[in-house]
Amino acid sequence: MAKASEIKSGNILRFNGELVAVEELIHRTPGNLRAFYQAKMRNIKTSKLVEYRFRTDEEVTICRVETSDYQYLYEDGDFLVVMDNNTFEQFNITKSLFGESIKFLKEGMNVIISFESDEPIMAQTPSHVELEVTYTEPAVKGDTSTSALKYATVETGVEIRVPIFINQGDKIRVDTRTGDYIERVK
Predict the structure, then answer these.
(1) Does the first or last residue of the chain, that is N or C, have fewer Cβ atoms within 10 Å of its Cβ?
(2) For the chain, what are the domain ranges?
(3) Which H or E run includes 15?
(4) pTM, rounded to two decimals
């Protein structure tokens, strides 16, 4: 157990039986009242924002979270099998931890996973990935006056909007957070 005065932004706390990440922590000393810590915390599982006032001497549980790089090996039902790059140990991670960015994952890519006492609590894909365009309509000749976009299917099966000069077989860089085209890779 730790005191509320030991909390820092970025810490993971066990708060009311749930894991929360501290996003913002402000020490307040109003006039002739006792000082307190105003915390904004995000629930790790539900992503709900929670605000709470901690007394300076209030007991809190700061969780020990280990974050490391893992290699994505393959999909197994509702799980992704990943391998620790150092120990070569394999883990099953639920797909829901990755969110929407999972649709851009290819086998062999590195992902970042956080564990709290042998339980995976957070997973993150790379912010940008390079994917090959497997299908797109050919561009209409002479249609270069505007920044027109067309649909293209990438090797993971996701359809994204790309500029008209992108052809089938081109490699492109995609932002996994938004699903937007960034650039063509040489």
Answers:
(1) C
(2) 2-62, 65-124, 129-185
(3) strand 12-15
(4) 0.76
